[in-house]
Design brief:
The chain has 336 residues and is α/β, with parallel strands linked by helices. It contains 14 helices and eleven strands.
Length: 336
């Protein structure tokens, strides 16, 4: 998730369209929302540029901003710039930008024991505080998986991880790892204990991901799978902001195909209502985690085909939820 500043300077055609219909000025909003982004505010400028729009968008918006600029080029010159909120920037400057990790000792027996002992503090207490009901179905589907696997889920809230963990057997919970932004969760010099790199590595099971790191971001996950560890990944890459699932990235498929491990989709419902993206206040409510059938890929499966197969497994449940509500995610749900 990130902020972007869109500057627009209208051509003569755009200015004429504005005179004929003032609503034309907000027409850019619909184009932005197609990419699962949210318009925070818009301003008319009295200067070199005519309009400024502040956008809150997922990371994959970077891949689409050139397309958006092209769409608008017939009526305006555009400039789209990534931004960072000032308090966070001040904090980063004061703390420095040096990061730590990944910690190879994460897979040691004593680290797994520490995660078991700290589980309630790291996960359980938050689930009790914010989940008025916590339904889990399909946990038995992990019984047929004896080696490492990749657990994937839809991503809607900061509380997704707390909901997902309860759907996993204990042998996975203590040997489960997920990627977290290095410049947010693995900065050296943090004062808060829970934000220090060693805490994230030991208690939370996180490892650092460098933004824009390319294929190198898969090196540590591959190392973890080789040592029998399990991964938890959100193939959308960031929290979805619209009603529909965001496009799945290929990282999960690349890992699963290269290492020959199954992918276990888990569909979670109710999380977005508790704390939607962009909101700071959480409202307690019911949640559910439904484990779907594990996906085993045949030799020779292409990366795009594997990604599509994972996406469609999740999409089938998501379409029911869109049409009939969160209860429709339950495997025993039947249309009235």
């Amino acid at each position: 998730m990130g902020h972007y500043v869109l500057l627009m300077k209208y051509h003569s055609e755009g200015l004429e369209a504005t005179k004929q219909n003032p609503d034309f000025l907000t027409g850019v909003h619909s184009g932005i929302e197609r990419w699962e982004a949210k318009v925070l505010s818009s301003f008319h400028l009295l200067g070199e540029w005519d309009q400024c729009t502040i956008i809150d968008a997922p990371d994959n918006f970077k891949a689409y901003r050139a397309t958006l600029a092209q769409e608008l080029s017939t009526t305006a010159d555009t400039q789209i710039m990534p931004a960072i909120d000032l308090p966070l920037f001040q904090r980063l400057i004061s703390q420095g930008a040096e990061t730590a990790g990944p910690a190879r000792w994460q897979t040691r027996w004593w680290a797994r024991l520490a995660r078991l002992l700290m589980y309630d503090y790291a996960h359980g207490r938050w689930a009790r505080r914010y989940f008025t009901e916590h339904i889990v179905t399909g946990k038995d589907k992990f019984k047929g998986i004896t080696g490492p696997c990749i657990v994937v889920a839809n991503h809607a809230s900061h509380y997704d991880q707390y909901c997902l963990m309860k759907a996993l057997p204990w042998r996975l919970r203590t040997n489960l790892f997920f990627g977290a932004a290095a410049d947010r969760w693995f900065l050296k010099g943090r004062k808060e204990v829970t934000l220090r790199p060693w805490y994230q590595s030991l208690v939370m099971g996180a490892y650092p991901i460098q933004r824009g790191g390319g294929s190198r971001t898969l090196d540590h996950p591959k190392w973890l799978l080789d040592r029998g560890a399990n991964l938890m990944l959100f193939p959308e890459g960031t929290r979805s902001r619209g009603r529909h699932l965001s496009r799945f990235k290929h990282g999960v498929s690349l890992l699963a195909l290269e290492k020959g491990v199954p992918v276990v989709p888990v569909y979670m419902a109710g999380l977005k209502k508790i704390r939607p993206p962009g909101e700071r206040k959480a409202t307690p409510g019911p949640v559910a985690a439904h484990v779907l059938d594990p996906i085993h890929f045949e030799p020779g499966t292409s990366v795009p085909d594997a990604t599509n197969r994972i996406f469609h497994a999740m999409q089938a449940v998501h379409e029911r939820v869109l049409a009939h509500g969160d209860a429709a995610a339950h495997p025993d749900w039947r249309q009235p």
